[in-house]
Amino acid sequence: MLRCLHRVVPGVASTAVAAAARCTSHPHLLLQQRGVFADKVRAGMVLRVDKKVFRVVANTRSQKGQNAASFNIKLTEVGTARKKEVTAGQGHDFSEVRAERIRLLFSGFDDDDFACFVFPEHSPDAGKEINIPADSLPEVQQKFLACGMPTDVLHIIPDEDVQDDKEVWTEITMPSSYVYTVEKLTLKGLYKMASFVECDGTVSVNDQIQLGDKVKLVIKPDGTVSFGGRASA
């Protein structure tokens, strides 16, 4: 696991909270209910299947006879991305997990290699901290999360009816682009590489970029990051 250099220090969390102006004033982006029949299952829902939590990728209907139908539901396990498919009749009742997407601010990695996030200033839980093991994050997040960055985090709410069910924070979604400050420039073959004050990642930049410049990096869903040009003032 990558040892990240931008650590939490006293005052960093409060600094991140102060950056809440960049975040939505409505942190709760999604709240799901429980109990859904197979024919009502839709992509994006979070279900509990065989005591595990899955996100629905797709639900396709296959006709069986004159009045009967079955549904093939494609799932991805939350937190592991393992795939699963189930077939169910129209009247099969799935348990929909109580889940919500919440806007949090990244505040750094601590000495125990936990990624720390805080609720923004205008939320009811302003300043409350959530800790997620850094080694459970994709490499792009370990390298390019920056203090004060707004992130969407999936919150799985424990089910009181399920024994030993636990609260889970997972599936962090970073902004599609973010502004960083160039701290160091090096050469890697024919490429000019920049490292940044706010994170531990490096990216190839053009020859016009100098130390201290503010540059935009594009953070792609495929886990790669690319140079997006000098940031406008």
TL;DR of this structure?
By secondary structure, this protein is mostly beta strands. The chain contains two helices and 17 strands.
Describe the model.
The protein is mainly beta and 233 residues long. It folds into three domains: 62 residues, SH3 type barrels; 75 residues; 54 residues, OB fold (Dihydrolipoamide Acetyltransferase, E2P) (Beta Barrel), CATH 2.40.50. Helices cover 6% and strands 48% of the residues. The protein is built from two helices and 17 strands. The strands form three sheets. Strands 1, 8, 9, 10, 11 and 12 form a six-stranded antiparallel β-sheet that branches. The longest helix is centred in the first third of the chain and has 7 residues. This is Translation elongation factor KOW-like domain-containing protein. It comes from Leptomonas pyrrhocoris (Firebug parasite).
Strand content: over 45%
Distance between the termini: 36 Å
Helix content: under 10%
- Note the total helix count: 2
SSE map:
Blueprint: H1 12-18, E1 28-31, E2 36-37, E3 46-49, E4 52-64, E5 68-77, E6 83-89, E7 93-96, E8 99-109, E9 114-118, E10 129-133, H2 139-144, E11 150-156, E12 168-173, E13 177-188, E14 191-196, E15 202-205, E16 214-219, E17 225-230
Antiparallel strand pairs: 1-8, 2-7, 3-4, 3-7, 4-5, 5-6, 8-9, 8-11, 9-10, 11-12, 13-14, 13-16, 14-15, 16-17
